[in-house]
Each structure stands twice: as structure tokens, then as C-alpha cells.
């Protein structure tokens, strides 16, 4: 005899296991969405930064090196480095703007002092992408911060899986099926039906 699902299906969602699983699923998916894009960006940039020791040393000239302070909020200030240097790669003149690829902890004021306009320096150029250049190879210790977002994304993914398992188990624990011969007001478990 065929079974059909009870018309009061939404009532099943009030099952405590299903409700907790649903809330866990919603939170886990939100965290996963908000951490996956930064994770991909950071892991990619960390890989590029770790490859910079293999880049080609190239003479360069500093054409701009200064700091810019901007206000953020009522009392906060952010100091940014404005850096430009000219170098030649693949037969054409190019402009670089990066001091380090990722994880630089050198204060901007120190960089300005050690890299005055007109100074001859060595930049390191990516042979596969000559538009990419840096003045400092590798990453500082802060570069390992790039692993924070992938770890959080991984935990969120585990939360999604655990929430789906909780929902599936709670729905199996209290099935709400009716047989065609039963009164629709009385749910019957699958084991009790003929």
C-alpha cells in the first residue's frame, strides 16, 4: 500500500533536532560564504609571495615614495605607502607599486626614508608575468595570517556537513507518513503500516 507524506509537513520542522540542524546549517553556510572568497584570495597571494625568491633581479629607479595619512572614524588614522618605481622587462618600460607581495610589516615611514625618489634599487620581476614586481622577496612573519580564513572556512564546511546529518537523523527519528486507508489526522510510523 502506498504511503504519502502528512499534509502537516511544516510541523516536522519544529522537531528540535531539525530546528537545531537548520539553525546550524544557516550559520555554517553564512560563515562559509563570508570566508571562502578571502581564503581563495589569501592562499593564492601567499603562493605568489612564496615564489618571489625565484623572480628575476632587475635594476629599478624610485619615482615616488611617500606616505599618505587618511582619517577613519573620529580618531583613527591610516597611513598608506605610495610607492612607484620604473623598471624594464620584456623590452618595455614598466611601473611597479608593490614593496612586498604580501605580509609586509615594515613601517611606511621607514620605507620612505630608505627609498628616496631617484634611488637606484633592485626589484624582482615575475618572469611569467613581467607586470608583477616587488622590492622585497618572500613574506614577513605576518604572511602566515593568510591561513586564518581557510581554517575558518574548513570549520564552517564541517558545520554544514554536521548540520545536514543532524537534520537527516531527526527526520528519520520521527517520520510522519500516512497510508491511503488511514484517517489523515493520525500519523503512522512506516514500521506500523502494512
Summarize the structure.
The chain is an alpha+beta fold and 194 residues long. It has helices at residues 9-12, 16-51, 108-114, 148-173, and strands at residues 3-5, 56-72, 76-89, 92-96, 100-102, 120-125, 133-134, 136-139, 177-179. Helix content is 38%, strand content 29%.
SSE inventory with pairings:
Blueprint lengths: L2 E3 L3 H4 L3 H36 L4 E17 L3 E14 L2 E5 L3 E3 L5 H7 L5 E6 L7 E2 L1 E4 L8 H26 L3 E3 L15
Parallel strand pairs: 5-8
Antiparallel strand pairs: 1-9, 2-3, 2-6, 3-4, 6-7
Helix pairs in contact: 2-4
If you had to describe this structure to a student in words, what would you say it looks like?
With about 190 residues, this protein is α+β, with helices and mostly antiparallel strands. It folds into two domains: about 5-40 and about 150-190; about 50-140, Beta Barrel (OB fold (Dihydrolipoamide Acetyltransferase, E2P)), CATH 2.40.50. It has four helices and nine strands. The chain has helices spanning about 10, 15-50, 110-115, 150-175, and strands at about 5, 55-70, 75-90, 90-95, 100, 120-125, 135, 135-140, 175-180. Strands 4-3-2-6-7 form a five-stranded antiparallel beta sheet. A two-stranded antiparallel sheet has the order 1-9. Strands 5-8 form a two-stranded parallel ribbon. β3 and β4 form a beta hairpin. α2 (about 15-50) runs antiparallel to α4.
